[in-house]
Amino acid sequence: MKIKTMIRKIMFVAMAATIFMFTTETLQAQERRQVMLDKVVAVVGGSAILHSEILEYAEALTAQRRQMGYTSDRDIINESLEALMEQKLLYNQALIDSIEVNNGEIVTRIENYVQSLIAEEGGIAQLEAKEHMPIYTYREMLRQRYEEQAYAQAMKQSIVGKVVVVPGEVERFYNSVDKDSLPVIGEQYVYAHITKFPTSLKEAQQRTKERLLDMRERVITGKTKFSVLARMYSLDGSAMYGGEMEPMPSSYYVRPFAEALEKLKPGQISEIVETEFGFHIIELIEKKGDVYRCRHILLRPTFTRDELMEPANQLDSIANLIRRDSISFESAALQFSDDATSKHNGGIVSNSDILARMGVYDGARMTATRFLKEDFSAQGGKSLDDYAALMRLKVGEISNSFQTTDLMGNQMSKIVKLVEIIPAHVASLSDDYIRLEEMALQQKQEKIYRTWLDDKIKSMYVYIDPAYRSDEFENKNWIK
After folding, report:
1. Which CATH number characterizes residue 273's domain?
2. Residue 317 and residue 387 share a domain
3. Is the pLDDT of residue 112 over 80?
4. Of the candidates 466, 463, 465, 468, which has an alpha carbon nearest to the alpha carbon of residue 77?
5. Which domain holds residue 271?
6. Which residue in 66, 155, 277, 340 is deepest, having the highest Cβ count within 10 Å?
7. Do 335 and 286 sit in the same domain of this protein?
8. What is the maximal distance between C-alpha atoms in the chain?
9. pTM for this one?
10. Residue 58, Cβ density class (10 Å: 0-12 exposed, 13-18 middle, ≥19 buried)
11. Closest C-alpha among 27, 79, 33, 88 to residue 55
């Protein structure tokens, strides 16, 4: 299989696991809609697949492909049915394996979606009329769908999440690819930076601690519920769930947080806990064995405008000194930068901060210094602020100071230098090892997952209505 086709296949397998909505473009689908509107088409494990469910999936898949300019030769109904059967299988196996998901997140997603629909339609009554069902029935239908998707995704992640590749596998992957099919690596940027936090950090930290102490007192005295304060003030993603985190062993938390959690009894609230993410207070809800269920409030230091402008002005002065050749960028980084991961390397930005946060300590990956445009995003790990500054520079130029945040959300000022622009090129093992490693890993994960899926299809109950059985299924094991 050519590499582009393989990547496209992997992408749509992953994408299909989260798609749901409506329509089809094929005449065959239109005929089936008229004849059997809500017939049970297939059963996988204990889960049925309705004809209307396939139509909804087919429309979403079609819409996605239109946006991406992608078409498929496969019948959209057969393709959607197979994707849904795979999702049902993953869901059923997740229940068997006791895979856990964040139910609070599911509830929040549903409520956000429902509220957006209510606003769009002009009210609850209008939405009920459009969907031909009471609002509580519609919420329950969505809950079942979202929950099934979450379990399926968690199950698949449990299968492929621990898969790794070693250098020899990357080289074999590269050598196995038709050279005409090697991917083109987009334009990449190498850059350096000097960062400065406000010098009033200690004062800001003290203000943050005082705010948390006040919140703790309000909860202990019964004036306010912990969950209410978490929703109002916490900077963690768990804020929307009242600060509640997914139940897990203490070893899954960063050490200071875990140590504080282990000292609590259900209902107790911790003293202030400082971690790399900021300052917390923690409430233990319950403990079952080594699994802790808790909620927390996370705050980070905040600064006045004058406090933020001080390091910005200092960096602008440093930038002017560098432009006048009074000091080199490398020397300035070593002398002034607050970024310990780059200051000893001339300020050159690498992946080390991102991977260290993920607990990955791979030498080759941590020292990677080439970044694609898409790496400058929340998912890619590099700040869009950095990209905006770099786009105004020519190679060798230095930006003015700008405000941004680090990976933990801490405010700081920064200047950047555009060191090199690497033009788009066909991937090579010597220059693009990290990108090829990612592709080799994707291929290995897909192979392991497909082997697992083959075995589960054979062992799990599967029924498909004879009218829907097709030799177009990618996995021939569905037909028993």
Report:
1. 3.10.50.40
2. yes
3. no
4. 468
5. 201-299
6. 155
7. no
8. 81
9. 0.60
10. buried
11. 33
